Structure formats: structure tokens, C-alpha cells
Fold:
Amino acid sequence: MHSPRISFYAAVAFLTIAMPAIAQQTPAPAAPKFDRTGVRDTSIFAPLVFPTPSATRAASGAPGARYWQNRADYDLKATLDTAAKSVSGEMVFRYTNNSPDTLTYIWMQLEQNAFRKNSLSSQLYSQGSRWNPGQFEGGDKLTRVEQVLAGGGGTKKRVPITIREGETMMKVPLAEPLAPGRTATLEMAWNFLVPEHGADRMGRDKSLYEIAQWYPRAAVYDDLRGWNNDPYIGQGEFYLDYGDYTVAVTVPVGYIVAGTGLLENPKDVLTPTQVSRLDEALKSDKVVRVITADELKSGAARPAKSGMLTWKFRAKNVRDAVWAASPEYQWDATSYKGAYAFGYYRPSAADLWTESADMAKMSIQEYSERWFQYPWPQISVVEGPVSGMEYPMLAMEDHSQSKQGLYSIITHEIGHNWFPMIVGSNERVYMWQDEGFNTFVNTFSESRRFPKDGDQMQRAASERGAVEQMMKADQDGPIMTPPDRIAERSLGIAAYVKPSVGLQLLRQEILGPDAFDDAFRTYVARWAFKHPTPADFFRTMEDASGHRLDWFWREWFVENEHFDQAIDGVRTFSSGDTNQVAVAYGNRARGVLPIRARFTMSDGSTEDFNYPAEVWSTNTIRYIRRYSFVGKKVVKIELDPDHRLVDIDRSNNSWTAVTP
Structure:
């Protein structure tokens, strides 16, 4: 009689070489590629090549000992002309060169030029699409650009700017070279017509105005690319330096203004009752109605009857400043740990928006408690025609159709105050590094507000299902693709959902929640108010979690792998009351993930067996395990029974014993 152990090993050998039907379905490994240095490892587990560490960016993923970034401070003035539907602006701009290089010019962004008929955006996107201005003829009209000469007693010199036709970038040659550690001061004046639909990032609706991308903004000069002067086309958003802002917005007296920063002159623009209500809101976690619908209707909401009023805001250490204004805004306020949470909305939206201030408060509370404390004195959500757009301390949302839908948009746009307003990544190139991260943290916030609609894991499962469907249709693409090169129909998956799903997999299935959360918080803290790259994120997550993740970064972010685990074969043997099982787990795609297997026994009990993704490192096609069970037989084996992973073909995920 043969020994059961010998028979079992024979079965294992059989599983590795004698599965002709399965072999036909399993892709052959890629042929190795050669170069002059020898054989190059092309497997999914090959070391991922990161940029060489430097004095500015350490191998750990932290900012280096000599990390630097430049600074942009603005004093801004805006006047709204409601008859002409235009904004005129003036600014004093101070640009501080903290780099080791002497700069002879500054690149500045004029995003309003995207709304010219001959703009690159209008030529790339069809008329009527989200990013095409259609027949609207807008654009910035600069009336003055001067440099204040250093040591010149306030002497100013006109600057001969250069703007290429159809472009959104302006080259500003400096009258004096800007040496390291020095500051250049520029003064500018300009005006532009406000588009009705400003690429869903700004616009107007009757008497309401949401004003963003409204002043010449300095591009970022960094240690990796020098000037980041990529044009604004539409899908790619913004990359900006930090600085201090003053913003003075002059509007007709009937208007209520929301803006980035804290209102500095409330007594000039509000009634004594409204000022008192604001003071009350700062001490309360309940919602206080600062300006009510009845006061708007009676005229008691405004301190004067005619003329113009100037609202003054101040913001520190932010990367942008925007504002919104309407004569119909009701204004609600509450607070969280000394920070105001404001909601501004018209009476037509009051059915849902009366909870907006509380929604804003819960959002900053969730992200503060879980990831990083909210650093600014207020957060505002403003209702208007923009369906959803984020700026420092201010988020724009439309009316919405339900409380759940409204909170989803509010908490998403407020979440952007962490990514990229606190963690200042380059949205123009790596949209996923803010949209994907933000989509991920939103699942926690949404489940907190509406737990009956699904917990965080259930919301993440819904996103995984969407990614699976895109992979099955072969309509997904590499996450690292710059946003302006992603098809509009695929942008939501590539920049939002797929990165979120990747982070969820990393948290739940690979690192574990504790290790992931600690590493993710480390990333946020290291790069708060700085400019991280994807490599800085990858390195920090490895450094803080203690895991090498080359394979995961490659398959999920850099390349575009698909995932298909299978049960390639099962052999069972009995010896007395001991039943032995050999299982060949198959991997029929290039991407690898952990193995989650559930065994159902003849007595109805189940046992789960989980293996990390690294088990595929020596053979990415097949992984074999042997099991022994006393007193019971295996009747069924399922892979990923709870659908926690991504798998494009689940028809090969189970094995059932043949009934004799």
C-alpha cells in the first residue's frame, strides 16, 4: 500500500504539470527583455525605480534637509459690475525666491483666457462640453503690469509681458534679476467678463456670481521641473504656491459675500444683530441663522439701502483665494474647535441647504479627527450654478436632489481642503493625487453622516464594482496618465474611483487599517503646505508602514494591470479520518493581489485561509498549498467569497467536490 504522504506529494506534482485545460487559459510569462547591463527584471515584483534621492527629497519620502519652495503673497481688490457682468481687479503681488537659482522671469497663469474663442481648450473640447466656453468671448484684459524696483523708493517700471495667442500662461520678465532669498513686487490691473458657465469652476446665475481663477496667479517653480508652466486646458486643475492674502471685494450694497479667509470688517457690511449672531455661532455647535429669508425679504438684512460696500477678507498660508456673491444669500453658521462652518444659499435651495452649515462642520470634524487638524479659521459652502468645485476655505455646490447627494458633494469639495489645499500636490499633472485621495477619505465621511445607507466598507465595495466593470470592458487606463490626456468619459474612474479603490485595497487587504492609517497620516503631516510628488507618497507609505510595495505601485498606479484569480485545480486524498487537500491557486492576469480562500466542509462549517500577495513573487501564475483536515471533508472552495478584491472573472473562483 502506498503511503498517504507519498501520494499527496505526487498529487502536488500532478497539479503543477498536468493541467492541460487550465494551461490553455493561463497566459505564458512575458519573455525577458535584455539590455547592455544584462537581464532586466520585468516581473510585477521587480524593484520600482524612483527618482534619485536628493537634498530636497529624501529616500524616506520626507522633504529633504534642503527642501525649499517659493512663496506668493497677494493683496487683491475686486469690483463686481453687475450691469456689465464683469470683474475688474487690482493686485500687489510679492514673489519670494527661496530656490538656489536666480530667476529672470516669472510665469503666471491667466485661466480666464481659456474662455476665449481661440483658446486651446475651445479647440480640444467640443462646444457645449463642460470645458468649452462655446460662443462666449471672455479672457483677461490686462491694463497695467509694473514692477516695483528694489531700493528705488517706490519707483515702478512697466513690464513687457508675453502671452501667446490661445494660451493661458503669461511670461513676466523681471526688470531686475531675482536672486535667492529676495522678493520681487509686481502690481497689476485687469478686467474680464464673467462667463455664465465657467467650465464648472466658476460662473453666474442671474444675480449670483461665483468668482474663481480670477486674478493672475504665479506658476510654481520647484526643484523637479523648474517652472511648471503647463497650460490650463480644462480637465487638469491647479498647482500653486502658498502665501498670505488680503482680498477686498466691492459689490452693490444688497449683496452678501462669501470668501476665502476670515471677514475682517463685519461691522462695516453687517448689521449689529448679524455681528452678534456670528459671535454666538463661534461659541456654539448648533446652527445659527445669521441672515434669514425674512430679513432678505424685508430689506433688514443689509446695513444700507444703496451704493457699494467693500467686504475685506484675510487668509494666511493658503494657495488661492476666491469669492461668491448674491443678494439672495441666506447665511447660516456654526463652529468646530474655533473654526466657523458657514452655509450660503438662496431661498430656492432652502429645502436642503438649511443643513449645509452642519454638513460643513461634520466634514471638517471627520477629516480633522481622522487625518489632520483643519488649520484655517472658517470653511464655507456656497450654493450656485457650479456643480462642485473646491478652493481654500470655500466650496461651491449646486442645489442637489437629496440630503445624501448634497452631503456627498459638500464633503467631497471640503475634503479637497486636505488634498490639495493642505497637501499641495500638482493637480495639473497628477490629478489622482488629490481627487483619488479625496474620494477615498469621502467614504469615511459619507458613512459617518448616513450610516444607514452603508458603512465605509460597503461604499468601498460599490467603487470596486465600478472599477471591475471598466476593467471587464477594457476601458480603464493607467492612473498616472495626466488628466488632459484622459478621455472625458474615463476621467471619473481613472482620477477618482480607481485610486480610491487602490487605497482601500492597500488599507484593508495589504497593510491593515492601523498600519495604513499611521502611514497615511505621516504622509499628510510630512507634506502639509508643501509639494509632494507620487514618489514622495510611495516612499512615505513604505517607510512608515515597513512594507515594500513596488509590485502594488506598479500594478495599480503606474501600469494598468487587470486581476483574475482562479482555482486551477484541487486534489483530495483520505487516510483514515484525515483528509488531505492540494489546491493550485491560479493567477490568470498580470496583476497580483492577496488570496482569500473559504473552505466549506461536509459538516457545513467553514474555514478561511488568507495569504499575502507576496506569495506570487516566485511564480506569478500558480501558487500551491496543502491542507489536512481531521474528521471532515472539503466540499467547496471559494476565492474572495466576500468580494473584497478586484476580479474581472469570478466564474473561475470556486471548486465544488464531485458527489460520488
In short: The two ends are 23 Å apart (CA to CA). Residues 4-31+565-656 form a domain with the Immunoglobulin-like fold (CATH 2.60.40). The chain has four domains: 4-31+565-656, 69-241, 266-305+320-422, 446-558. The first helix runs from residue 4 to 17.
